[in-house]
Amino acid sequence: MSRATDVVVGGLVDLHVHFMPDRVLRKVWTFFDRAGEHYGMPWPVQYRGSETERLETLASLGVTTFAPLVYAHKPGMARWLTEWAVDFGHRTPGAVPTATIFPEPDVVEYLAQALDEGARCVKVHVQVGGFDPRDPLLAKAWGLLAEAGVPVVVHCGNGPRQGAFTGLDVFEQVLAAHPGLVAVLAHAGLPDFGIALDLMARYPRLHLDTTMVGTAFTERFAPLPSDWPARLVDVADRVALGTDFPNIPYPYEEQLAAVRSWAATDDRLGDAFLQAVLHDTPARLLGVA
Ligand SMILES: [Zn+2]
């Protein structure tokens, strides 16, 4: 098997990276510096350079397109974070405009505005946000996203820490109410990988992203099932590269190595799978194919 970047036509498309206003990103890094208290394990963020340096790093890794995702941990943040992310996506080469939502009275208003202004991906963080994705305040927002066909990357799994409303069973109720939604299970639903794949079998528009999955770091507390590569065969066109750059406690290449190892393990995956995961599927989701 050749190196990931060698076989990928069009360069890497990363559906799950984080760029935020500097002040917010510093706070996120401070949080990870105290990961021992929050997660019971150290989390040494690898890529702490300036915004310019981080953009240069992505380019040097072969990433040509990426979705810079933002998320809110309390009400009153999602609107201005979304405005920032739409602007950042428009002014930054390689980035696409994105948005986030939070259950609050003006959510439909700022989401509709972001979609009008070209948002191509939306992040929903059920764990950090601490909200119920079934909140009636979000119903119209989910409907709007389903109608627009804009993918929504949802961190709704129970890892690395359980939240009040995490759990794929909770999010399934959103999918049942909005079956047209193009949702992407962030971190492949970590640690409930099997349940994520079961859900994908029932919801044909449901995808997963690879963020942190299969790296030595997550294998320690959320190991993949041994039949993971074989089970990916049925959903091979619904798996998208995601990484959590820059907030990862290991080099970016480790994620690519994990995807490469799945491709190499099952003959039915191989180079075609690499091309799909690392470029074609995330490019299709972001509408840049
Ligand atoms: Zn993330």
Notes on the protein architecture:
With 289 residues, the chain is of the alpha/beta class. The chain contains 14 helices and 8 strands. It has a 6-stranded parallel sheet. Helix 5 runs parallel beside helix 6 (107-116) and helix 6 packs parallel to helix 8. The model has no long low-confidence stretch (mean pLDDT 95). Bound molecules: zinc ion.
Which small-molecule ligands are present, each listed once? zinc ion
Count of DSSP helices? 14
Average pLDDT works out at 95
Structural class by secondary-structure content: alpha/beta
Distance between the termini: 25 Å
Fraction of residues in β-strands: 5-15%
- Outline the low-pLDDT stretches: none
Topology pattern, helix = H, strand = E: HEHHHEHEHEHHEHEHEHHEHH
Total beta strand runs: 8
Name some characteristics of this structure.
6-stranded parallel beta sheet; 8 strands; alpha/beta; 289 residues; two-stranded parallel sheet; binds zinc ion
Blueprint (SSEs and pairs):
Elements: H1 4-7, E1 12-17, H2 22-33, H3 35-39, H4 51-60, E2 63-68, H5 78-91, E3 98-100, H6 107-116, E4 121-125, H7 126-129, H8 139-148, E5 152-155, H9 168-177, E6 183-185, H10 193-202, E7 207-209, H11 216-219, H12 228-232, E8 239-240, H13 253-265, H14 270-286
Parallel strand pairs: 1-2, 3-4, 4-5, 5-6, 6-7, 7-8
Helix pairs in contact: 5-6, 6-8, 13-14
The protein binds zinc ion.
Zinc ion (ZN) is lined by residues 16, 18, 211, 244.
